Automatic annotation (TrEMBL):
Organism name: Jiella mangrovi
Superkingdom of origin: Bacteria
Descriptive protein name: Uma2 family endonuclease
UniProt-listed CDD domains: DUF820-like
GO MF terms, alphabetically ordered: endonuclease activity
Chain ranges of the Putative restriction endonuclease domain: 16-182
Swiss-Prot/TrEMBL keywords: Endonuclease, Hydrolase, Nuclease
């Protein structure tokens, strides 16, 4: 257990932003329900999947080259949503809702978030963070699991998450809010030795 985690488990008062700033930069730090939560930086397979997804949807929805554009995406932005400080792996805002970028953190809830599941984060991603995103009004959430190689999608309706489509390596991904494009899930596993073969077979 890290020093920050030991501190959060023994203190009675909620964690502060000063506590978060004191965490070693090699760790990702969040304040969730008043608790200081830390976890390691992503492993390469995790980072590669996040980067591949960001490039695929960014080409279509930020640069507008293979899709309609109209979005801005950030990797691991620090979001201040009420008293919670959370760091999604990917987040996107429609351009008409662009947040202020004059601070080190963002207080405007994204329109879409994606969490890349890992053993150290899955409990929070599926639990407290999913609730925090719903309370903040985030409309779309994706959970990407590089270990099991699938994506789960969720849509906010009346303050509750409604389960959307789930995609595996045999199903082309096309889901709100990015249903204007589709792509094979296998492109999100560039470190998989079979990825090059799959790409060649698709050509």
């Amino acid at each position: 257990m890290s020093t920050a985690e030991q501190l959060s488990s023994t203190r009675a008062e909620p964690a502060t932003y000063a506590d978060l700033e004191a965490v070693h930069p090699h760790l990702v730090a969040e304040i969730i329900d008043g608790e200081l939560v830390t976890h390691p930086r992503p492993v390469p397979r995790h980072s590669a999947a996040a980067s591949a997804l960001g490039m695929e949807i960014g080409d279509a929805f930020q640069r507008g080259r293979s899709g309609p554009g109209g979005w801005i995406f950030l990797d691991e932005p620090e979001l201040h949503l009420g008293s919670d400080v959370v760091v999604p792996d990917l987040a996107g805002w429609r351009k008409e809702r662009l947040p202020s970028f004059d601070k080190a953190f963002i207080e405007t809830a994204p329109d879409w978030v994606c969490e890349i599941l890992s053993p150290s984060t899955e409990r929070y991603d599926r639990g407290a963070k999913r609730r925090i995103y719903a309370e903040a009004g985030v409309k779309y959430m994706w959970l990407l699991d590089p270990r099991a190689e699938f994506i789960e999608t969720f849509i906010l309706a009346d303050g509750q998450w409604r389960v959307g489509p789930t995609f595996d390596n045999d199903t082309a991904v096309s889901a709100e809010p990015f249903e204007a494009i589709s792509f094979p899930l296998t492109i999100l596993w560039p470190l998989n030795p079979a990825a090059d073969t799959d790409t060649q077979n698709a050509q």
